[in-house]
Amino acid sequence: MPKDQPDINLSPKVSDEVRKTTCYMCACRCGINVHLKDGKVAYIEGNRDHPVNQGVLCAKGSAGIMQVNAPSRLRKPLKRVGERGSGEFQEIEWDEALQIATDWLAPIRRDDPSKLAFFTGRDQSQSFTSFFAQNFGTPNYAAHGGFCSVNMAAAGIYTMGGAFWEFGQPDWDHTKLFMLFGVAEDHDSNPIKMGIGKIKGRGARVIGVNPIRTGYNAVADDWVGITPGTDGLFILSMVHCLMKAGKIDVNYLAQFTNAPCLVNGDEKSPEFGLLLRDDDGKELVMDRATGKLTPFDQKGVKPDLTATHRHAGISHRTVMQHMAERYLSDEYAPEAVADRVGISAKRIRTLAAEIARVAFDEAFELEQEWTDFRGETHKTMQGRPVSFHSMRGISAHANGFQTCRALHVLQILLGSVEVPGGFRFKPPYPKPATAHPKPHCGVQPDCPLDGPHLGFVQGPDDLALKEDGTPARIDKAFTWENPMSAHGLMHMVISNAHAGDPYKIDTLFMYMANMSWNSSMNTRGVMDMLTDKDEDGEYVIPRIIYSDAYSSEMVAYADLILPDTTYLERHDCISLLDRPICEADAAADAIRWPVIEPDRDVRGFQSVLCELGGKLGLPGFTNEDGSQKYADYADYIVNHQRKPGIGPLAGFRGDGDQAGRGDVNPDQLDKYIENGGFFVEHIPDGANYYKPWNADYQDWAVNLGLYDSPQPYLFSLYVEPMRRFQLAAEGHGDRQPPDHLRERIKATMDPLPIWYDPAPENKVDDFPITALTQRPMAMYHSWGSQNAWLRQLHGHNPLYLPTKLMRDNDLSDGDWAKVTSPHGEITVPVLEMAALNENTIWTWNAIGKRKGAWALDENAPEATKGFLLNHLMHELLPPKGDGLRWANSDPITGQAAWFDLKVRIEKAEAPTESQPAMEPIKSPVGKGPKQLTWKVGK
Amino acid sequence: MTTLPKSTDRKLGLVIDLDTCVGCHACVISCKGWNTENYGAPLSDTDAYGSDPSGTFLNRVHSYEVQPEQGEAQLIHFPKSCLHCDDAPCVTVCPTGASYKRVEDGIVLVNESDCIGCGLCAWACPYGAREMDAVEKVMKKCTLCVDRIYNENLPEEDREPACVRTCPAGARHFGDFADPDSNVSKLTAERGGMDLMPEQGTKPVNQYLPPRPKDTLSEGAGDIDILAPYLEPVAQEAKGFLGWLDKTLEKL
């Protein structure tokens, strides 16, 4: 070293200790190494051994240190002392808080448990919170899926027994073409980035279909700036092209899907349009070898795709024939759809041709023998290296369920699901809709509910209706308005509870859901509903309990606040019973554990539910002598058993070396901690593709406890349960829809994917522009703004306008525009963006903050320049003049149709701040410090 | 004035792949975290929860829109930190010798105890890669995680800059450009790695890999006609299609 260079310490001590746990800065659930110095968090990095992130970590994850020290953290239980919405609270002790909650909830449970509505937002413990709700006995439970991506999840499960993200992933090691439809950039955040990096590294093509060219779409080799809400039409047009060219996997369709199943063609039969089945309920196919009707699963059967079964003068044709008739129609020709989707016919053909080229010309085989459920052994595994991914972009439309279905049908026609190079399920998926529970709504005073709340209906008999035919649930899930609402409709709870439609409730209990701000449509309206009083001067929604770790906008609207811990101060389990973190080659689960202790008087919400369940005497939460069963959530995680031998965590059961099934192991959490906070069980080679039909996989899954018996099934190109609802609408059966919904059910519940346009109902003639939001990769919902580092990346959110709309409206960067929808108006700053669909405007989601929330200064840019598009939306569609309340949701699943928003814009005088400006709320935690120099080590 | 070494034994630096960078800011925050806790004074944040938050960052991601003559507009994410130039003007301008380039590996560093906070180096850097810390009043810049890459308290696989270790898309690579067989030298050669603003004569060590050509499946682009035969119809309508299906099944 030259003598004028200073001597620096190249090997400083990094930390006293590294504790490995699971991130919660978004929904991705990466493994993290938390470096501690003097018991304080010094640095957070990704855990290299972890199956989800393999060492990498996003901006949110690395900024966790600023979440754990955020001044917005709630400190103590709070009791409301001012008017609701004022933010006037008194700090109370936990004993008092729990007593208040018990005094409110005990009489409800005794008399009518449905008077409690318990909804959890970004909850990662749904198998636990639903267990609490089920024991309480209320039918009114769901998490946030209904306003997130239920269309994607439900369409995937009904079609093929799993969807994207938590359900499956592209075969990153073999895929040669990856097509990405609209996706919130934080869904499967790090794995998608890692996957894109990997496939681009070997020169594979990435195609992004999205009106906005940011993030993944910015690095996509090809960008398709589609007109929002028309993805389904685009996909079906590609289906048209591929079928017409015979670029479909005929062998795969015949063996593994219901394409060869026969559809009842007897128009007079109550089973018209259902699949022909034998006495055991098995779908029948025509066997090419024998020419006879045969159950689909028999050894040696060669299902015929083109057969017609003639019986008693009636022709029953295959699903494949129905598909050919529909999709070969010129209605789906690229020329017929080009104008509506905003993609030229030539380009649609080119994209379809590229898919065909890669799927069939670049097809390959893996030298891996496997045996299918019919007992037939295959020498190799056929690869189809085309994969897809999508999330909210296509699902958050009123046509989203059918659009998601269309995408899965495209995947299946190509034979690219569960094959090398295609899309692969992650355990516990594949799992067909028939293997999931059905919804339960049997309420009795002083009793648990008669089964799980949420599930997959198979027909009208499974709807959650009372004896008089009215909705059993406050959110009207599983009713004729949205029969297949597998995740509930959290976005309708407050609106319905306020309207007393279908009935009034007593207590609204919510967790991690910012309903008075960015998590509701019609934000101002929701505030009014939460604070509205009846003629007696009582709140229309009498009591509200809320749990959150932070001083969010919702805190001010509750009567009792149960302060939660941050994610580094708590136990959690990322469970196979819930929303697991498995990989296509392995089952996996994980824990969080208190790597630091809270410095405030706060408690993990799940532990509080253990206490509350004990105080209320709920059966699942009390011992025989009436005492509290689980001391805290950690106790539950280790000792709870859903079925004998099956608990929240699959790893280290029994004496510590049993996986999946096994006795309770009191040392289980220590074993997880020793193992880096997670557990992985690999799928053996040969069992890891063709999972729905692979005998070795099915046996492995049964051994691990994912199924009780092998569950091979056919993919449902044709979704029979949908046809059962159509039959009811046509007048068949005892359970009949109300007349005003008959035509809609007939039209939308088509068992083969269709596309319909939600724009007219959103008054597109007067409001011709689509307005979208998306989430920055570096922020998660409203949580990011309290984070001193992340808010410097996204401190305010301009409204991005395409060049054409800037010019048409004489706008320049920094000008302000008034944006008007059928429901409301906002005035906000604009910025030009060229890489944008020319009739779409957009902004970042949930950057806008209410003054007084999140311990921010009232002049924070989030509160002065930031804004929400939510003010432009309504949970109901614009009135149709029939006096009915039509939800702004998908008519099949109830998914909130966030992305159907239509607006018009005009230049506006610059106001002093974004409009509407809400009055400040009083902060229960004060404001953050002026300056940060965060260094914990000496 | 401070002198630069005539040559350095190694030339450590980064390759940043603009074809793959999704603009997620993971590198920005990972850097902020490591360098707040480690080398020198913490990276401060003033008005952290206020109306004008402003913190010190050693690495930032900028985004630029590009409108090609033909075809769709593009968005390029462009991470930027010190490029550890061979002819670093920030070093030669330093009046105290606080700014220096290490002989052994070419890393450009600031010796904070000698820095008087005059800011000349930040003016001299054509890339805007240095930031004055508002609280400590010393100049901060990318250290290439000099306290990680040789750190014997870290497992060997972790001895790389925090930004490289964390990058989810694998768009950042660390290595020795003096070694023609290193990963960074090879990537630079294979993918046409570029100097940033070569006309400045700073001879930056860090290299940027340009985005690959985009939108080749668009109107007017080359692939569109080559692919047409893949959609040659097997039939025009349902009946003919079923005949084709039948024949195909027969062959299986």
What does this entry look like structurally?
- The complex is a heterodimer of chains A (938) and B (252).
- With 938 residues, chain A is an alpha/beta fold.
- Chain A is built from 24 helices and 35 strands.
- Chain A has a 7-stranded mixed sheet with strand order 5-4-25-24-23-6-7, sandwiched between helices. Chain A has a 6-stranded mixed sheet with strand order 30-32-31-34-29-33.
- In chain A, helix 4 runs parallel beside helix 17.
- The two termini of chain A are 27 Å apart.
- The model of chain A has no long low-confidence stretch (mean pLDDT 96).
- In chain B, the strands form 5 sheets. Chain B has a 3-stranded mixed sheet. In chain B, strands 2-3 form a two-stranded antiparallel sheet. In chain B, strands 4-5 form a two-stranded antiparallel sheet.
- Chain B is built from 8 helices and 11 strands.
- The termini of chain B are far apart.
- With 252 residues, chain B is of the alpha+beta class.
- The interface between A and B is large, with 117 and 99 residues.
